[in-house]
């Protein structure tokens, strides 16, 4: 790969990294796969990214509905000590918890809506 093509590729990957977000309805596993590909390709082009930077990026790409979990992860350990694999495991576990609670949340909303109508 000539120098100009390498720089164009690197620039494109840096942009993908900078604007990386979890896509709505995307699983954490798929998000990590996409993120890992970008990181691997950047490192292959001699881009240095610290583990702390990677960990922060992972947490910041999640939607606001994950803020409680993000705070818990940040408070639990120093960001330099958490591996990307550990982040993946914790976030997949939390995603599963959210999915199991969705039916409960829907039933609570339905129950609340029925009570609200009967009061009116």
Automatic annotation (TrEMBL):
A Pfam cross-reference name: Retrotran_gag_2
Protein name: UBN2 domain-containing protein
Higher taxonomy: Eukaryota, Viridiplantae, Streptophyta, Embryophyta, Tracheophyta
């Amino acid at each position: 790969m000539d120098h100009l093509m390498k720089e164009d590729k690197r620039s494109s990957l840096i942009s993908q990294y900078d604007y990386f977000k979890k896509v709505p309805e995307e699983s954490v596993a798929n998000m990590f796969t996409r993120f890992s590909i970008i990181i691997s390709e950047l490192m292959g082009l001699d881009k240095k990214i610290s583990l702390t930077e990677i960990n922060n990026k992972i947490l910041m790409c999640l939607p606001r509905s994950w803020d409680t979990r993000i705070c818990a992860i940040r408070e639990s350990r120093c960001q330099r000590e958490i591996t990307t694999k550990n982040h993946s495991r914790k976030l997949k576990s939390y995603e599963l918890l959210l999915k199991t609670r969705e039916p409960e949340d829907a039933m609570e909303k339905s129950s609340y809506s029925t009570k609200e109508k009967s009061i009116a």
